[in-house]
Amino acid sequence: PTLIFVHNIMVKEALTLLRNRISCKPIGFELLPEKFTMRQLQKLYEAILDTELDKRNFINKFNSLDLLTKLKEKDMSSSKKGAFLFEFDQNKYHKKVEKGFSFKI
Predict the structure, then answer these.
(1) 79: three-class secondary structure by DSSP
(2) How many CB atoms lie within 10 A of CB 68?
(3) Is the pTM of this model over 0.70?
(4) Cα-based torsion angle of the residue sequence 72, 75, 79, 83 in order, rounded to the nearest 10 degrees
(5) Do 46 and 39 touch, CB atoms closer than 8 A?
């Protein structure tokens, strides 16, 4: 829908701020449910960055960061096989930051 001129500016500024922060802090997890699929996480990053991300590279990147906990639960709504659910491990993240970890996506 068409927005009032001032609202367009506000949305653009908010999106710019999100794009700047998402590349250096794991803020995406604040925008997802507590339990999420890798696909949901990827779709969120794609929406914010306005670009398509390679699925395999995206998953490998987040696995290498070691900030997610893979749950035994699956989301069965997307397919018969289901997709594993994950949680963001804030404790791991804070410990890594204390040791100089820098989140880069």
Answers:
(1) coil
(2) 20
(3) yes
(4) -50
(5) no
Q: How many CA atoms lie within 13 A of 55 on its CB side?
A: 4
Cα separation, 20 vs 105, whole angstroms: 11
Asked whether the beta carbons of 92 and 66 are under 8 A apart, the reply is yes
Q: Which residues touch 103 (CB under 8 Å, ≥6 apart)? A: 24, 25, 26, 65, 93
Angle at 100 between CA 97 and CA 102, to 5 degrees: 70
Q: Which residues, 6+ apart, have CB-to-CB distance to 78 below 8 Å?
A: 37, 39
Ranges of the chain whose pLDDT falls below 70? 1-3
Domains of the chain: 5-98 (1.10.10.10)
